[in-house]
Amino acid sequence: QVQLVESGGGLVQPGGSLRLSCQASGFVFSRYTMGWYRQAPGKQRELVAESTRADHANVIDSLKGRFTITRDNAKASIYLQMNDLKVDDSAVYYCRAQYTGDFWGQGTQVTVSS
Asked: Are 12 and 75 spatial neighbours (Cβ–Cβ below 8 Å)?
């Protein structure tokens, strides 16, 4: 049974940091491209960052310098370090696994507010 379980979301003030985690199970993690996506109310879900199975990390241009994605194949996990958070970063953040399958987690809420 495939599972992607996100954690680490919460309420943070502007300028603060959060580290999201995604724990995967039920598939061969190292073969999959893993990604973080987010969806704010009334907006489409968008890619935030991804880590390919060759361990190439890519963050979308608008978030470079603030967000970092890392993966640990031994722990079947990916992480999203988010620094200098802004109100516009508020969204539900989802973990996604892509290769022969396409799997999504349930999401974790990130709220940036003073």
From this structure: no
